[in-house]
Request: fold
Amino acid sequence: MPEAQIDGQQHRAVSPMSPFDLNNPLAYSRWREEKLAAAPRCAEELIVEVRDPRALSSTEHEALMQRIRRCNMAIYASPALEQDSTIPRELARQFGLEHLDANWLAEEEGISEIQVSGGGTRQSYIPYTDRPIKWHTDGYYNPPERAIRAMVLHCVRSAAEGGENRLMDHELAYLLLRDADPQHLRALMQADAMTIPERVDERDGVRPAQSGPVFSVDATTDSLHMRYTARTRSIEWKQDAATLAAVGALEKLLGSASPYIYRTRLEPGMGLLCNNVLHDRAGFSDDAEHPRLLYRARYYDRIAGS
Ligand SMILES: [Fe+2]
Reply:
């Protein structure tokens, strides 16, 4: 695809009609107005009660889609309490999500069981502990050909205490940052804004250092994609004033009391379906008899029709 020079930086050209084109303030302001008018103001607005996530009625499907179109996410609440990983998979399939990212820690079929691990390799990865996880999008360390565009988080058992999530539509984060200063977006769309240093993992062996943008526009769907982590270890930000200012503004936004940051806790039978929005997780404590268990399915596809 053609590339354009903007402020001396290489930017992928986005469609001239795209609200994400920084040179098209008119398309942006139209999109912005609609986005803010439609955005939910609390987590309750995200929740749809469904009878069986594996086989949604057309009304239930439409109710979930309506929320996803507004803010890239929806939460279903169901009486499906079984420990059965086909639940998230069958749910996802009804939204065009087919291509799972087979994380090497995931079970064979590519769905991860997120629970506190008693030992082994998983123990060294924060998701498999009871510790808090900072703001991120899933798979921020994946190479572009394995970008995570959507995911499902399905709760089998919740923690005795804690384990809440905060959620934020990454398009709203884009919007609020662009309102604050469009230069933040120029900085965060740079191809070398964020670098994952060289590391070793058991799936791919030595992975070379890898740079990429925080925000990018998916050429095929003209949709906004975000890679981000608030972690300070295993991540290097471009050391220029514009990037550091933009990262600081994003951190400040995510630490604020914005009405667009939704706070919720998934209870058994509930799940989050989203276009890989920003999220975090609070620390938790388990009931030893019934430890917290979530299934996580990550997809290369974006939710169809969103
Ligand atoms: Fe995550």
